[in-house]
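Before going further, learn to read the protein records used in this course. The integers have meaning only within a learned vocabulary of local backbone shapes. The record below shows the convention in full.
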Amino acid sequence: MKFQSEITRKNLTVLMTLFYEKAIEDAILGPYFMHELGDDMQSEEWVEHIDLLVDFWLAKMLGEKTYKGNFIGAHIKLPQISRESFVRWLELFSLSVDEVYVPEIAEVFKKKATLFSQQFINNTLKI
């Protein structure tokens, strides 16, 4: 796939699918996602989850009014989340972004993802 120079729903779907393919195979992240969504990324639960994340990133990157959820609240219900899991999430997300977008766009994603990761850590972990 050619590196994308603009953000669209289509290439965000590619990004989210690529990231979750890595995540469910990961020793740290895989158990979280398989417990919540199963291991079949073609399932309705996974398709809905990927669509939700595409909406989230469209809202965060382009200001579209596509996401109405609470991204921190959705993760508070997962008490087993650790700081290590956020570090790993950021690593895999960054790798995936680099595979989909030109460096300028990838860097913006990585900066926002780092901020979101910090928000998760500060709001979900009892440190």
